[in-house]
Amino acid sequence: MTKTYTVHEPRKLTGDPARDAERFEFVRDGFHFWAFLLQPLWMLWRRMWLVLLGYVILSIAINATLWAIDASGGVRLVVGFLIALLVGFEAATLRRWTLRKWTNLGVVVGRDQEDAERRFFDAWVARGEIPKMPAAPPPPGMPQVANLAPASPARAPELPPDVIGLFPEPEPRR
Predict the structure, then answer these.
(1) Within a domain: residue 159?
(2) Which domain holds residue 28?
(3) What domain count does the chain have?
(4) pLDDT tens digit sequence for 61-119
Protein backbone atom coordinates (compact mmCIF):
# COMPACT_ATOMS: atom_id res chain seq x y z
CA MET A 1 0.00 0.00 0.00
CA THR A 2 1.46 3.34 -1.01
CA LYS A 3 1.24 6.51 1.01
CA THR A 4 1.36 10.11 -0.17
CA TYR A 5 3.65 12.66 1.47
CA THR A 6 4.08 16.38 0.98
CA VAL A 7 7.66 17.62 1.24
CA HIS A 8 8.46 20.88 3.05
CA GLU A 9 11.81 22.67 3.09
CA PRO A 10 12.77 25.06 5.91
CA ARG A 11 14.56 28.31 5.34
CA LYS A 12 18.13 27.69 4.31
CA LEU A 13 20.19 28.34 7.41
CA THR A 14 23.63 26.92 6.68
CA GLY A 15 23.96 27.41 2.93
CA ASP A 16 25.04 23.76 2.67
CA PRO A 17 22.30 21.92 0.74
CA ALA A 18 23.24 18.55 2.23
CA ARG A 19 22.90 19.80 5.82
CA ASP A 20 19.71 21.75 5.05
CA ALA A 21 18.20 18.62 3.45
CA GLU A 22 18.36 16.83 6.82
CA ARG A 23 15.73 19.25 8.11
CA PHE A 24 13.09 18.54 5.44
CA GLU A 25 9.66 17.49 6.69
CA PHE A 26 7.62 14.75 5.04
CA VAL A 27 3.95 15.01 6.05
CA ARG A 28 1.84 11.89 5.36
CA ASP A 29 -1.68 12.34 4.10
CA GLY A 30 -4.45 10.27 5.61
CA PHE A 31 -5.87 9.41 9.01
CA HIS A 32 -3.51 9.78 12.00
CA PHE A 33 -4.53 7.37 14.75
CA TRP A 34 -2.50 9.00 17.54
CA ALA A 35 -3.91 12.43 16.69
CA PHE A 36 -7.38 10.90 16.98
CA LEU A 37 -6.66 9.14 20.26
CA LEU A 38 -4.57 11.75 22.10
CA GLN A 39 -5.24 15.13 20.47
CA PRO A 40 -3.47 17.54 22.87
CA LEU A 41 -0.50 15.24 23.49
CA TRP A 42 -0.07 14.66 19.74
CA MET A 43 -0.10 18.44 19.17
CA LEU A 44 2.48 18.96 21.92
CA TRP A 45 4.67 16.16 20.54
CA ARG A 46 4.60 17.80 17.08
CA ARG A 47 5.20 21.26 18.58
CA MET A 48 2.02 22.64 17.09
CA TRP A 49 1.54 25.41 19.67
CA LEU A 50 -0.98 27.57 17.80
CA VAL A 51 -3.03 24.55 16.77
CA LEU A 52 -3.08 23.39 20.42
CA LEU A 53 -4.16 26.85 21.56
CA GLY A 54 -6.98 26.87 18.99
CA TYR A 55 -7.99 23.33 20.02
CA VAL A 56 -8.16 24.29 23.70
CA ILE A 57 -10.17 27.46 23.00
CA LEU A 58 -12.57 25.59 20.70
CA SER A 59 -12.98 22.74 23.22
CA ILE A 60 -13.75 25.17 26.04
CA ALA A 61 -16.27 27.04 23.86
CA ILE A 62 -18.01 23.82 22.77
CA ASN A 63 -18.12 22.43 26.32
CA ALA A 64 -19.46 25.75 27.65
CA THR A 65 -22.15 25.74 24.98
CA LEU A 66 -23.12 22.14 25.77
CA TRP A 67 -23.26 23.02 29.48
CA ALA A 68 -25.36 26.15 28.74
CA ILE A 69 -27.97 24.17 26.79
CA ASP A 70 -27.90 21.44 29.45
CA ALA A 71 -26.89 18.67 27.03
CA SER A 72 -26.87 15.10 28.32
CA GLY A 73 -23.71 13.09 28.91
CA GLY A 74 -24.34 11.03 25.79
CA VAL A 75 -24.45 14.14 23.60
CA ARG A 76 -21.21 15.41 25.16
CA LEU A 77 -19.58 12.05 24.53
CA VAL A 78 -20.68 12.01 20.87
CA VAL A 79 -19.49 15.60 20.33
CA GLY A 80 -16.12 14.77 21.91
CA PHE A 81 -15.79 11.69 19.70
CA LEU A 82 -16.64 13.71 16.58
CA ILE A 83 -14.04 16.35 17.46
CA ALA A 84 -11.43 13.62 17.99
CA LEU A 85 -12.39 12.06 14.66
CA LEU A 86 -12.07 15.43 12.93
CA VAL A 87 -8.60 15.97 14.40
CA GLY A 88 -7.55 12.48 13.27
CA PHE A 89 -8.67 13.10 9.70
CA GLU A 90 -7.31 16.65 9.51
CA ALA A 91 -4.02 16.05 11.34
CA ALA A 92 -1.95 16.28 8.15
CA THR A 93 -3.65 19.53 7.19
CA LEU A 94 -2.98 20.96 10.64
CA ARG A 95 0.66 19.87 10.40
CA ARG A 96 1.04 21.48 6.97
CA TRP A 97 -0.53 24.65 8.34
CA THR A 98 2.18 24.85 11.02
CA LEU A 99 4.77 24.57 8.21
CA ARG A 100 3.15 27.40 6.20
CA LYS A 101 6.33 29.53 6.21
CA TRP A 102 8.35 26.64 4.79
CA THR A 103 8.66 26.00 1.07
CA ASN A 104 6.39 23.24 -0.22
CA LEU A 105 8.56 21.28 -2.65
CA GLY A 106 5.87 18.91 -3.88
CA VAL A 107 4.33 15.52 -3.39
CA VAL A 108 5.98 12.11 -3.35
CA VAL A 109 4.56 8.60 -3.02
CA GLY A 110 6.18 5.62 -1.29
CA ARG A 111 5.46 2.45 0.67
CA ASP A 112 6.59 4.21 3.86
CA GLN A 113 8.34 7.45 4.82
CA GLU A 114 11.81 6.02 4.23
CA ASP A 115 10.88 4.92 0.72
CA ALA A 116 9.32 8.32 -0.03
CA GLU A 117 12.42 10.12 1.25
CA ARG A 118 14.68 7.94 -0.89
CA ARG A 119 12.58 8.52 -4.01
CA PHE A 120 12.41 12.27 -3.40
CA PHE A 121 16.13 12.74 -2.79
CA ASP A 122 17.10 10.47 -5.72
CA ALA A 123 15.04 12.67 -8.04
CA TRP A 124 16.27 15.84 -6.35
CA VAL A 125 19.92 14.91 -6.88
CA ALA A 126 19.23 13.75 -10.45
CA ARG A 127 17.71 17.15 -11.28
CA GLY A 128 20.87 18.79 -9.98
CA GLU A 129 19.21 20.78 -7.19
CA ILE A 130 21.82 19.56 -4.73
CA PRO A 131 25.48 19.38 -5.69
CA LYS A 132 27.25 16.06 -5.56
CA MET A 133 29.49 15.67 -2.54
CA PRO A 134 33.20 15.95 -3.32
CA ALA A 135 35.25 12.79 -2.96
CA ALA A 136 36.86 12.41 0.43
CA PRO A 137 40.65 12.66 0.48
CA PRO A 138 42.48 9.37 1.03
CA PRO A 139 43.56 8.60 4.61
CA PRO A 140 47.06 9.66 5.61
CA GLY A 141 49.72 7.24 4.48
CA MET A 142 47.80 6.10 1.38
CA PRO A 143 49.42 6.93 -1.96
CA GLN A 144 47.71 9.58 -4.10
CA VAL A 145 46.22 8.27 -7.34
CA ALA A 146 46.56 10.47 -10.38
CA ASN A 147 43.35 11.82 -11.87
CA LEU A 148 42.83 9.80 -15.05
CA ALA A 149 39.75 11.72 -16.18
CA PRO A 150 39.94 13.27 -19.67
CA ALA A 151 40.56 17.01 -19.92
CA SER A 152 37.07 17.66 -21.32
CA PRO A 153 34.68 14.98 -20.10
CA ALA A 154 31.99 13.73 -22.46
CA ARG A 155 28.56 14.93 -21.52
CA ALA A 156 25.93 12.34 -20.69
CA PRO A 157 22.68 12.59 -22.64
CA GLU A 158 19.91 14.43 -20.79
CA LEU A 159 17.26 12.13 -19.38
CA PRO A 160 13.68 13.25 -18.85
CA PRO A 161 13.03 14.18 -15.21
CA ASP A 162 11.18 11.72 -13.02
CA VAL A 163 7.68 12.65 -12.05
CA ILE A 164 7.33 13.71 -8.44
CA GLY A 165 3.85 14.86 -7.76
CA LEU A 166 0.65 14.56 -9.64
CA PHE A 167 1.65 15.78 -13.09
CA PRO A 168 4.77 15.40 -15.27
CA GLU A 169 6.77 18.39 -16.45
CA PRO A 170 5.14 20.11 -19.45
CA GLU A 171 6.81 19.44 -22.77
CA PRO A 172 7.20 22.13 -25.44
CA ARG A 173 4.61 22.15 -28.20
CA ARG A 174 5.71 21.01 -31.62
Answers:
(1) no
(2) 3-126
(3) 1
(4) 999 999 999 999 999 999 999 999 999 999 999 999 999 888 888 899 999 999 999 99
